[in-house]
Design goal:
Structural class: alpha/beta
Order of helices and strands: EHEHEHEEHHEHHEHEHE
Distance between the termini: 32 Å
Largest sheet: 5 strands, parallel
Number of strands: 9
Number of helices: 9
Length: about 260
């Protein structure tokens, strides 16, 4: 593969996007950065999120990477326009909350939908603009999940026998709202999509497949299943780390599950 791909998230949330992409095209040369020391971005300041985005992108560019997937809704909302202006030679693919789903769902009068985001994504000007443009009738409710990304991150690394109960508590204000659809506006959320679906008794929708399609379209590639190519991972485990490869995953390898 002539073009290297970088992908990053505040932690392990972007693995939902990465796995979907690898299952469609497993020969891609991908470098994944999990910025765990700063996870989750949704609870950080805007300046800190933008600073981390620049630091990671500079590292990727030094590796000769020409396409960067911002596999984080918060980072996309706060930084993608600035990154595109600062690094015009790089192709960026962002992850937006799937607000446009409102124009594709088979709506019936009694059906309702909610989009789940981190607090920072929900407060961002980019998200507000996107919702105004694509959902002018206000059919999508929005709910900011204060701790959900952090709960997912902790369960991934430490395990958590109370994961289901914590998700139920996090989403308690929504449990009696009778939503038909829950749109997952953070890449951490698909990793616990089955818990969210069970808690809200709803169908969950993510953007993973749409992001994968966009990457393949930019590379002018069709989905296929060629032999695996290992994925290089960097995990930032403390604020002093510059990032280092610690393991590889591929489409066929056992993936951590929550």
């Amino acid at each position: 593969m002539a073009l290297k791909i970088g992908m990053f998230d505040s932690g392990i949330g972007g693995l939902s996007t990465l796995k979907n992409l690898l299952c469609q095209r497993s020969d891609l040369e991908i470098y994944y950065w999990a910025d765990d020391a700063y996870a989750p971005y949704g609870s950080k300041s805007e300046a800190e999120v933008r600073g981390r985005c620049h630091a990671i992108c500079q590292h990727f560019i030094h590796q000769g990477i020409g396409l960067i997937v911002i596999a984080c809704n918060t980072a996309t909302a706060l930084a993608i326009d600035e990154l595109r202006a600062h690094y015009p030679e790089i192709t960026f693919v962002g992850v937006e909350p799937y607000v446009n789903v409102v124009n594709h769902l088979p709506w019936q009068a009694q059906q309702r939908a909610v989009i789940l985001t981190t607090p920072l994504t929900g407060q961002s000007a980019r998200f507000s603009r996107l919702k105004r443009q694509l959902d002018p009738a206000g059919r999508l409710d929005q709910y900011s999940c204060p701790q959900l990304a952090k709960i997912v991150e902790h369960a991934f690394w430490q395990g958590d026998p109370q994961l289901a109960e914590k998700i139920q508590e996090e989403l308690a204000p929504l449990q009696d709202q009778h939503y038909t659809y829950a749109i997952l506006g953070c890449t951490h959320y698909p990793l616990v999509g089955r818990y969210i679906a069970a808690t809200l008794n709803t169908e969950v929708i993510s953007t993973c497949s749409a992001v994968s399609k966009r990457v393949l379209d930019l590379l002018d590639l069709a989905p296929c299943n060629p032999p695996d190519t290992p994925i290089s991972f960097w995990f930032t485990r403390s604020s002093q780390d510059t990032g280092y490869a610690v393991k590889t995953l591929s489409a066929q390898a056992p993936w951590p599950a929550l």
